[in-house]
Specification:
Layout lengths: L1 E3 L8 E3 L8 H11 L4 E11 L6 E7 L2 E2 L11 E10 L8 H10 L24 H6 L12 H7 L9 E6 L4 E8 L2 H16 L15 E2 L3 H35 L11 E4 L1 E8 L2 E8 L1 E3 L5 E5 L5 E7 L8 E3 L8 H7 L2 H7 L22 H6 L5 E14 L1
Parallel strand pairs: 2-3
Antiparallel strand pairs: 1-2, 3-4, 4-12, 5-9, 6-8, 6-10, 7-8, 7-17, 11-12, 13-16, 14-15, 15-17
Helix pairs in contact: 2-6, 5-6
């Protein structure tokens, strides 16, 4: 871990990577965050890179304030994973049918279900708060309330970009299911609405970067944002739960003879806000591209569509505000990846993985990401590895 002191910064920037490897634009974003009047701490994960509004891979602890752009527009985005009773011997040689069945069951990209998914159809799915959750939708920002029908139909859908569904093998050749998604379009619209509100508030007019506009405690704007933020985080959690239930159904149908069973799911947000206490202070901790890694917390850190995913257990490092990276992190922008790599490169780098290999996902090529092994090595004091997975099927939006 490195301490970086910057002129005007109110806190040291704690970095779990070599500062010399962080691009200038991301360093400037970190410098800007560290000058905010409300900041009490800033930890930077090894997957750090430039992001819209605020740096991806940053953990920002503030007192009495929260920055909606530092949460990101995909509120509650995160990962879920579950170990199955299947082994590599249960898998067919040709996995294309399995990928096709997954894509048929779970809409990807901008797709949605024809009708809202009824969680009651899934045995064992925790739905105790379902009705209350949807009942609270009437209390979110009026500007996005008209999106209710769309939000209901997008519940249990993947999205695009780096979101994915995967079938993977661990080092013992056991089969795992993993997925990555968030609060879909409703979370994005809620985030953009509140970012716009924050940027117009008087106390934000003198900030070095208007994208870092904050809401402050004991104001109606803060209360409205936190209401919608927590609702969207809950939406994201339900979204992953429904998708995992749909994915399990596919596995049950495709491997009927093996009668697959599933262990307890691991699930974690990596774009969210939590109320936590450090050094005697009650703080609002924003993790954008970071997971909670308190002592014993289970988490998931994926690489890319051709590399490893790690199931981890947190070590509870308070210098990092009990956090760890959310993935490998991009080392180049999507446009740069499209310019640099071809579909042939994509085929080479995803050999052995049943997945899309067309121009539409070249920007997700493994070469556009940092090496996941190096990222894991840089956070050995944040997490310990429980399992290392390698995908054999990857579904992208």
């Amino acid at each position: 871990m490195s301490y970086v002191e910057m002129p005007g910064a109110k806190v040291p920037i704690r970095m779990w990577t070599d500062p010399a490897t962080v691009e200038d634009a991301a360093l400037q974003q970190l410098r800007n965050v560290a000058t905010l009047p409300w900041i009490k701490g800033l930890a930077v994960m090894p997957d750090v890179h430039y992001g819209k509004g605020a740096t991806v891979g940053s953990v920002i602890a503030m007192q009495g304030a929260v920055c909606p752009a530092a949460v990101g527009v995909d509120i509650g985005c995160g990962m879920s994973a579950v170990k199955t009773s299947l082994t590599v011997n249960d898998l067919p040689g040709d996995l294309s049918r399995l990928r096709s069945k997954i894509e048929q069951a779970i809409p990807v990209g901008r797709g949605m279900h024809d009708d809202p998914v009824d969680p009651g159809r899934f045995h064992g799915l925790a739905t105790a708060g379902w009705d209350g959750f949807w009942g609270r939708f009437d209390g979110v920002a009026e500007a996005v309330r008209f999106r209710g029908e769309r939000a209901a139909k997008q519940m249990g859908t993947l999205g695009s970009g780096n979101h994915h569904l995967e079938v993977s093998l661990d080092s013992d050749n056991s089969v795992w299911l993993t997925l990555h998604s968030g609060s879909r379009n409703i979370g994005k619209e809620l985030a953009e609405h509140h970012i716009g509100v924050a940027q117009k508030l008087p106390h934000n007019q003198g900030l070095v970067d208007r994208d870092l506009a904050v809401f402050v405690a004991d104001t109606p704007q803060m209360a409205a944002y936190r209401n919608d933020l927590y609702w969207a985080q809950e939406y994201a959690k339900y979204n992953r739960s429904i998708m995992m239930a749909l994915l399990k159904d596919v596995i049950r149908r495709e491997f009927k003879k093996a009668k697959p069973t599933f262990e307890t799911e691991v699930s974690c947000h990596h774009n969210y806000v939590a109320e936590e206490r450090y050094e005697g202070m009650d703080l609002l901790v924003t993790r954008k591209g970071a997971i909670r890694a308190g002592a014993g917390d289970l988490g998931i850190i994926p690489g890319s569509m051709g590399t490893a995913t790690y199931i981890v257990k947190g070590l509870g490092n308070e210098l990092a505000f009990n956090s760890a990276s959310h993935g490998a992190g991009r080392r180049m922008s999507r446009n740069a990846a499209k310019r640099r790599f071809s579909t042939k490169d994509l085929e080479d780098q995803t050999r052995g993985v049943e997945c899309r290999k067309d121009s539409g996902v070249v920007d997700e090529i493994p070469g556009a990401y940092k090496p996941i092994e190096r990222v894991m090595d840089q956070q050995r004091d944040l997490v310990e590895v429980v399992a290392k997975l390698k995908q054999v099927v990857c579904v992208k939006g």
